[in-house]
Structure prediction request, 360 residues.
Amino acid sequence: MRKIFILALIGIATQVSFAQVKDSVCKTHYGIAYPISTHGKDAANITNKFSLHLFTAYSAGVDGFEAAGVLSNVKGNVEGMQLAGVVNITEGTVKGIQGTWGLNFTHGNIKGLQCSGMMNIAEKNVKGFQGAGCANIADSIKGFQGSGFINIANEVKGVQWSGFINYAKKVKGTQVSVFINIADSSDYPVGLVNIIKNGKKTLNISTNMQNDIMLSFKSGGRKLYGVVGIGYNPFYKELEYNAHAGMGYHIPVSQKFTIDIEGIALGYLSKDDMDEADLKHNHHKNDSLGAASAMLNLAFDYQPFEHFGITAGPTLQYMFTRNKSKYDCINNTLWNKENLDKNRFQALWVGFTASVYYRF
Prediction:
């Protein structure tokens, strides 16, 4: 192996001495680390059709394919594919694919795919796909921007998706995040919390026919919004606590009146459930506790004042539980099903929900 490595060095050094570096375009470029390559110190002045390097690559441009084990640095443009184990740097534009396990950095525009295991940075525009395991940064996106943690862009035309947070100024399309979306304007954000400058943010206190008292934060754009909150039931200890989350859609009717359609998922739990959960954990039992519920709301929203408004409307709600005492709290069901052998109880009913809210 050592002899092969030494021979490779000698071969590259020999080719360097005879390389015709006057030509600005070359078919092939091989090397170990700049300037130990077939182009030597003149590598920065030559655009390559095919370039392959053990550690680092340095060139004027790529018109085909370039790959390096650690770093690929291109002074000009990339047309084709640029791959590196750790870092890709392109001073010009990229038309094609730029991929690495670590960081991609491009000063110019990108048309195609920019993919990394950690982070992508595009100082100008991305037209196509920008995907990273951790973070994406671009001036503008036309297509798809997706990361495991955070996306940042001034303008988005398409989809911005992240595992935690999206940030943009102007969005024509949708933002999708597990937790939070932030934008000056974004009509279709999908997330638990959506801080949209030209959108709507309210703190709601609501009640329903089961006597749940719920505190909810609703936030989003002019169309879609997210719902997240907690609740308490002072009358039914079996349904004492709940946590809920979901999405809603605004249908504007007038300046002060809208119709809202909401889909909410709820989980009910009581103090007895918590005590029983501790007991079952100690005895290694896996019986389900609490109750799972899904709710479809049709809310008529009227805001007579700048910061205050009211909502009211019918609700269609479904519950599944293995706890019969929770099931017995539901009256006047449209449909119900009891399976005593498997200890499964289901119910579907129509209710009514009303709330007052403060708009930020």
User: Anything to note?
Assistant: Residues 2-193 form one domain. The chain is about 10% helix and 65% strand.
